[in-house]
Amino acid sequence: MTDVQAEPLAAPGQVNAKIFPFPLNAWYVAAWDHEVTSKKPLARTVAGQPMALYRTADGRPVALADACWHRLAPLSMGKLVGRDGIQCPYHGLQYNSAGRCTKMPAQETVNPSALVTSYPVEQRYRYVWVWPGDPLLADPASIPDMHQMDSPEWAGDGLTIEAPCNYQLVLDNLMDLTHEEFVHHSSIGQEELSESDFTTRREADGSVTVTRWIRDVTPPPFWLKNIRDRFPGFEGRVDRWQIIHYYAPSTICIDVGVAPTGTGAPEGDRSQGVNGYVMNTITPETERSSHYFWAFMRNYRLDSQLITTQLREGVHGVFGEDEAMLAAQQRAIDANPGKEFYSLNIDAGGMWVRRILDEMLRAEGRA
Amino acid sequence: MSAPALPGAVGPAGATTTAVRPARVVEARDVADGVRRVVLEHAPGRPAEPGAHLQLVVHVDGPGGRRREVRSYSVVDASPDGTRSAISVLLTPTSRGGGRYVHSLSAGDDVECSAPLQGFPLRLGAGRYHLVAGGIGITALVAMARHLAARGADVVLDHVVRTRSRAAYADDLAALLGDRYRLHVDDEHGAFDVGALLDEVAAADGDGEGAVPGGAEAYVCGPIRLMDAVRRGWEARGLPASTLRFETFGSSGWYAPQPFTACIPEIGLRTTVGPDTTLLEALQRAGADLMYDCRKGECGLCRIDVASVRGVLDHRDVFLSRRQQEAGTSMCVCVSRVAALPAAQGGDGQPAELVLRLP
């Protein structure tokens, strides 16, 4: 047979969705490691699924469906019992970390079908990750690489934003940083950002990289402070980089920094500059709300808690500007149900993200 | 358009109603002596998970003519697109009518069934799975065995049957599991040694952190004698109650079903309970307005005090503890019955009689 048939193009419908569905067969960050304790359960909704998070007596994190088998009262309002159990706050039914009911106080037996879902859980990179989908597909090796979070070669800290918007809006925001010029003009924005060329590629490992070099510019206030932390009294022009790494479904690690112009940073020698990693992982909570976990990590002056705190607070202020924009964008989307999204060339990174998410949803039979 | 509600097998008060949908029989054949496999084609939905059952509307001949009743059957396998579900049903001499109905079906027949319902969920993450099937109980475990084997889990399936010709799915399971499928035939090998099996489970479990990381879990479905032996042995070995799972439709007891008389003096009720009807159904037909829900002896809502009994209580529920069952002062009327005391135990041949007391 020699007929060559053109591959049919994928239906465009879902990739342009304004309210993007979220894959379930994926690892999402449910909480910072310190938020999950063996003192009392934490209630958190991940990918539309309410969970009760806690630690067993030996420190292992547990995520159970946050609804008692009996009458669906939230287990997260209950208390932790025994080595690995939780007690429903309403009628005292007890479950172990596997989600099996172990006690029904008002009777001498336990109903053999009493069970709540116990989600696969992994603790890594200072986060507690959960898998809301088919537990048999939960391979910890597919947790995105965020090693800068707890590597001895990096220092820093972060916070959580409760973003009142669809998670894809946050991904869009991080995959195209030209918005910095307009949203963050007092800190990291500069007009050369939009003017600089960028490249977008889907890597062999499935990740997406967006690379942008802004050469020979005056460092904006945030970066002038950073380079002076390492090289006190620095004056002059810099080459600035933003290399965005996206890992499905919703983790974006951005390699950022500046180095004095002419010291070879674009060619690979960053030794005269300063380098940070903006760590972002976004967990859909509902269709219109997201837990946005971020941190700013740096690889210089590792011992300075002052710089760690200054950077965390500084980025917190910058990201507050994003949060306000994302909230306003979601309100406008909801107020304009009859209008569509249009894409620009700057959306290349975000559009790859949409295509990859669409592939994941199709694999789950949800497209 | 909403789907029609299932008619409750017994009176409407408090009946659990589940939506049914039309389905068509696309395959019907015997897979063992007296065991008929029926594949139903229906509107697409979530394919049944391992351990799921569906409810089938069955047509049963009774004193008042032909009735629509509901029976639950484990889903043996389901197509990935959720359009086909297979059940397999044993025809027994004491069939309450469901088995006869299913055995009368052939390809092309129109039937009604519910979407899959989960009452016997498989928990993932154990280090070792022991599946134990007695007779037709294999139907609740076939899908679990396939699911676990496909994922490389450590699974052993013990299948206990009286005679080899009754071992449904034996060839499929042997091909699937190799020597991890152990068929035990009573009339060839003698009585099944539950104790030896439980010693093996206990050795694998080793306090949940012993020989097999993740510990061992058991899933049991079969006649009440097998389940009771496993439960007693489980307790005796100090294995955690939460890792022994069993499926029960309350359809087997310690005694063969036989007719008996049931009375509730407060409301002047006296009725005969035939071998092919449940005590709950008989009481409701005789006019008692009773509370119940699961109809398989799990929830305990139908528990009623026993004032007196001539004969022996045949407790078939899993709600009452052994202590409570031995006390004999109450029973779950949805599944439990009364049997005449056998002559060997001093019975005088009189039919059994039960007197219940409303609260």
> Main sheet of chain A?
7 strands, antiparallel
- According to DSSP, the number of beta strands of chain A is 18
Average pLDDT of chain B = 88
What share of residues are in beta strands of chain A? 25-35%
CATH architecture of the largest domain in chain A: Alpha-Beta Complex
The strand order across the widest sheet of chain B is 5-6-2-1-7
H and E order of chain A: EEEEEEEEEEEEHHHEEHEEEEHH
* Estimated structural class of chain A: alpha+beta
Helix content of chain B: 10-25%
Calculate the mean pLDDT score of chain A and round it. Answer: 93
Helix and strand sequence of chain B: EEEEEEHEEEHEHEHHEHEEEHEEHEEE
Side by side, the strands of the main sheet of chain A go 12-18-17-16-15-14-13
Uncertain residue ranges of chain A: 1-10
Largest sheet of chain B: 5 strands, antiparallel
**Count of strand segments of chain B:** 20
Protein name (chain A): Aromatic ring-hydroxylating dioxygenase subunit alpha
Keywords (chain A): 2Fe-2S, Dioxygenase, Iron, Iron-sulfur, Metal-binding, Oxidoreductase
GO molecular function, one term (chain A): oxidoreductase activity, acting on paired donors, with incorporation or reduction of molecular oxygen
Give a structural overview.
The complex is a heterodimer of chains A (367) and B (359). Chain A has 2 domains: 28-137, 3-layer Sandwich (Rieske Iron-sulfur Protein), CATH 2.102.10; 147-364, Naphthalene 1,2-dioxygenase Alpha Subunit, Chain A, domain 1, CATH 3.90.380.10. Helix content of chain A is 20%, strand content 30%. Chain A is built from 6 helices and 18 strands. In chain A, α1 packs antiparallel against α6 (348-363). Chain A is globular and about 80 Å long. Chain B has 8 helices and 20 strands. In chain B, strands 5-6-2-1-7 form a 5-stranded antiparallel beta sheet. In chain B, strands 11-10-9-12-13 form a 5-stranded parallel beta sheet, with helices on both faces. A 5-stranded mixed beta sheet of chain B has the order 15-14-20-16-18. In chain B, a hairpin with a 4-residue loop joins β14 and β15. The longest helix of chain B has 13 residues, at 224-236. Classes of the chains: A alpha+beta (367), B alpha/beta (359). Chain A: InterPro entries: Cholesterol_7-desaturase (IPR050584), Rieske_2Fe-2S (IPR017941), Rieske_2Fe-2S_sf (IPR036922), VanA_C_cat (IPR044043).
